[in-house]
Design a protein that fits this description.
Radius of gyration of chain B: 33 Å
CATH architecture of chain A: 3-Layer(aba) Sandwich
Strand content of chain A: 25-35%
Number of strands of chain A: 11
Helix content of chain A: 25-40%
Number of helices of chain A: 7
CATH class of chain A: Alpha Beta
Number of domains of chain A: 1
Radius of gyration of chain A: 18 Å
Helix content of chain B: 40-55%
Distance between the termini of chain A: 21 Å
Shape of chain B: elongated
Oligomer: heterodimer
Number of strands of chain B: 13
Distance between the termini of chain B: 27 Å
Number of helices of chain B: 12
Number of domains of chain B: 2
Shape of chain A: globular
Structural class of chain A: alpha/beta
Largest sheet of chain B: 7 strands, mixed
Order of helices and strands of chain B: HHEEEHEEEEEHEHEEHEHEHHHHH
Strand content of chain B: 15-25%
Structural class of chain B: alpha+beta
Largest interface: A-B, 28 and 22 residues
């Protein structure tokens, strides 16, 4: 479970400041799917970065499964991310000159997973995204959709409890994008992880149980399936 | 991240940028190549000097003279005041000079110094000729055989106490004296002649008296020379190392014969019982402290004394300077390559900014990112070190026989590579490369993941 309380993020100092997030509060239940929408500059990426501990809030708290991640040390935060979180990015960020197998191995190496377990976990992840036949192919030789599937395999290999997806279909055509989203929602059900999607795509957002819309750093609306809450 | 994962990732990163890695490693290899060759040459020269010392000098002996200019170059060259107590005027390369020699009294004084076991004059006797029936006459030099020497023998044996009128000849004299081989020379008789030195005082006196008949030379110099028979007891092989060219033709006899013949040649001259140098054997001279102690006492008594260590220093001085110059160039090349490593690492950080961002987002610690780049730098240093040193060793090993042949060094290798030195050199390069990688690695570890992931 994620609990966001009065989250504020202000960039700059003295008179030259910019408020990226202002007094944002909401809760995300276990195993649920959340979309964060808003125009460019509305603060959705900042919110995702703070929720994942990549950035610090100016005030407010982020509590994940009872752990206030705003208060823990950088090293503990690294360990928390390595074992509990994962990311999918619009630009895939796969290592083109490495094989699919080597790309998926990265989170396991960072999390110091034993050598004995690694091979099995990587094989499972590649099988889940139907890339098991391309384990030894270089990532450079994959299509855009395959690269994003590879990025998903890398994201799920350490079985995270939260999966952050930043515009996961932004670089894909609509047909491939649909397939990727079906895959992500399927994994959410299969793995039972929280899926947080930052997107401009309203159709995609509608598939999530909770839809948060940001405007100028503030929550404009939070829609939960069968329930609408105006802020 | 486990250490082996870090090293594997560093290696993979280097291999993915092969050209850059090879060129940077090559820059390090140039310096390593020069330094490896210098170390090899240094070892070879040192070995060569040690063999010269071992073959020619007794480490328990000091070489003593009464004139310190023999062992060192004077700071300032200026005309020398004539001194009758000195030996005759000598002129080698440069202006004529007198050398203050050792007399019998000096020899006795030195003998009385505590710690001195024995004193023997250094005599190099110029023979009028050496010959054999039916052969030509050849000039030669005869010295006392030192029991310390252990020359390689082609034939015969050298007893501990060499009998009178026995001669050890070098292989260079076999053919001139008409011997078919070394064994053929053993127990054969050769004739050795020495000639009295010109007595200038007697000549001047005769001229002043107007009686020059005594100065009329005999056809065979019979009044001024003696010829004695010697039996060849051993034939020595040409040594692989020489203190100076020509010494390979030295003939050796016992102390009694050499002193007697020397006395004959110097009789009535200024050089009678006067010696340029003396060999002073020190009690328990294998102990450096005892040797140094005796050397200090001899110097305190007013003489110059040189130990084997001093001789070795003199021999290696020029070589050391030349090696120093080459080593400086090698170090300059290594220092220059450091900038190459820094540059390469900075480029690597820039090219992998998003990868760094991703790794940090996935929970990789700053320290592990730092290690990743430091290992990359270390591996570049390792590749460069291995490439340079292996090339130098291979080339040196291939060239060694040719160099030894050209310089007549026999079985001695001028380039002697030592594994411990090469390992030490490579380790040094790895450390230098790591130091060069510190700043880029720090830059990588300090990258903010959000900023890094925004880079297009």
């Amino acid at each position: 479970m994620i609990k966001i309380s009065k989250l504020t993020k202000i960039y700059g100092k003295n008179n030259n400041t910019f408020t990226a997030l202002a007094d944002v509060s909401f809760e995300v239940g276990a195993k649920s799917t959340v979309s964060i929408m808003g125009k460019s500059g509305s603060g959705k990426s900042t919110l995702m970065h703070i929720m994942s501990g990549l950035d610090h809030p100016t005030s407010g708290t982020v509590v994940i499964d009872g752990v206030n991640i705003s208060k823990i040390s950088p090293r503990a935060m690294d360990n928390f991310r390595a074992t509990r979180m994962s990311f999918i990015f619009q630009a895939f960020f796969v290592e083109a000159n490495q094989t699919c197998y080597q790309n998926v191995m990265l989170p396991l190496e960072i999390a110091r997973v034993s050598l004995a377990k690694r091979k099995r976990l990587v094989a499972e992840a590649l099988e889940a995204v139907e890339l098991d036949s391309k384990a030894n192919d270089l990532a450079a030789n994959l299509s855009g959709g395959q690269k994003q599937r590879l990025a998903i395999a890398r994201a799920i290999v350490n079985k995270p409890s939260i999966l952050f997806a930043d515009e996961p279909t932004g670089n894909l055509d609509s047909s491939t994008g649909d397939k990727i989203m079906n895959l992500l929602f399927g994994l959410n059900e299969k793995l039972g992880c929280i899926l947080v999607i930052v997107t401009h795509d309203a159709e995609l957002a509608k598939r999530c149980q909770t839809q948060i819309i940001l405007k100028d750093g503030m929550v404009e609306s939070i829609n939960t399936k069968n329930k609408k809450k105006e802020s | 991240m486990y250490l082996y994962d870090t090293i594997r990732r560093s290696l993979r990163s280097l291999l993915s940028a092969k050209s850059r890695t090879i060129l940077t490693a090559f820059a390090i290899a140039v310096g390593t190549f020069a330094l490896t060759l210098t170390l090899g040459a240094s070892n070879g020269a040192s070995n060569y000097a040690n063999i010269i010392i071992k073959d020619n000098f007794d480490p328990t002996e000091l070489i003593v003279s009464n004139d310190n200019t023999l062992f060192k170059s004077p700071d300032k060259i200026k005309p020398q005041v004539y001194d009758q107590s000195f030996s005759s005027v000598v002129s080698q390369a440069g202006a004529a000079k007198q050398v203050k020699v050792l007399s019998d009294n000096d020899m006795e004084r030195i003998r009385q110094i505590p710690g001195v076991e024995s004193v023997r004059p250094a005599i190099s006797l110029n023979l009028q000729y050496i010959t054999r029936d039916g052969q030509k006459k050849y000039v030669g030099t005869m010295q006392e055989f030192s029991s310390y020497k252990e020359p390689d023998l082609l034939a015969g044996t050298i007893p501990k106490n060499i009998p009178n009128h026995s001669l050890i000849i070098p292989e260079g004299f076999l053919e001139p004296l008409g011997f078919t081989n070394a064994q053929n020379a053993i127990n054969k008789v050769v004739r050795v002649a020495v000639q009295k030195q010109v007595n200038q005082t007697a000549i001047i006196s005769s001229i002043l008296k107007g009686d020059v008949s005594s100065l009329k030379p005999n056809a065979d110099n019979s009044n001024n020379s003696i010829e004695e028979q010697f039996k060849v007891i051993a034939v020595t092989k040409k040594p692989s190392t020489l203190v100076q060219p020509g010494t390979e033709l030295y003939l050796y006899g016992n102390n009694s014969d050499v002193v007697r013949l020397n006395d004959y040649t110097t009789q009535n001259s200024l050089d009678y019982h006067k010696y340029l140098l003396a060999y002073v054997k020190v009690i328990n001279g294998t102990n450096i402290t005892t040797l140094n102690d005796a050397q200090a006492k001899i110097k305190k008594a007013g003489y110059s004394a040189q130990s084997v260590i001093d001789t070795e220093k003199t021999l290696t001085q020029v070589i050391t300077v030349l090696q120093g110059i080459v080593m400086v160039f090698g170090l300059i090349a290594v220092v220059a390559s450091v900038f190459g490593v820094v540059n390469t690492m900075y480029i690597s950080v820039l090219q992998r900014t998003r990868e760094i961002g991703l790794m940090k987002a996935l929970g990789m610690h700053k320290r592990d990112i730092n290690k990743l780049f430091l290992f990359e730098a270390a591996l570049i240093g390792l590749f460069g070190g291995l490439l340079g040193s292996l090339t130098a060793v291979t080339l040196g090993t291939l060239l060694n026989p040719w160099i030894s042949k050209k310089l007549s060094l026999g079985n001695i290798s001028l380039l002697d590579f030592r594994l411990d030195q090469i390992i030490g050199l490579i380790l040094m390069l790895v450390i230098i490369a790591v130091v060069a990688g510190l700043l880029p690695a720090r830059k990588a570890s300090k990258l903010e993941p959000i900023e890094a992931l925004r880079i297009e």
